[in-house]
Amino acid sequence: MPLYDCMLLLKPHVKKEALMELVARIGKHVYRRNGVLADMKSFGMVQLGYGIKKLDGRYYQGQLMQMTMMATPNINKELHYLNKEDRLLRWLLVKHRDTKYGLEFLSEDDGKGELSKFTRSSIYDDDDFDEDDDDDDDDEYDVDQEEKKEN
């Protein structure tokens, strides 16, 4: 089963009990489909970049939650009931790509030591950096100014 992140942006006035009830309902839905809720994070109150208009007004703040879950690929279609949820401003389901888990994860070295192949001089190569590119233009400007003053 693939790994998904479900981001929930709730209205700012939603109580903690109602928030936990919604999260529990999503968790039960995933569990009934043989999925696993791996992690939950609350980012608290966040300021939005623009107002989100709903029937009861425009919101410039929201409570942000993230739920990480392993679920079947049709979980996106199954969570569309969240569109009718009046406590939510937005929700988004993001699938983790190229995530290794289970036996695939244990057999990999997880890329450890990949950076050790590079030496410090090849990463921080300062030879190509030229600081005095714009100094030549100043001399031409000074000559033009002197010619105008003489005329």
TrEMBL record:
Gene3D superfamilies: 3.30.70.60. One of its GO terms (biological process) is translation. Residues 123-151 are annotated as: Disordered. Residues 124-145 have a biased composition (Acidic residues). CDD domains: bS6_mito. Coiled coil: none annotated. This is Ribosomal protein S6. It comes from Quercus lobata. The lineage of its organism: Eukaryota, Viridiplantae, Streptophyta, Embryophyta, Tracheophyta.
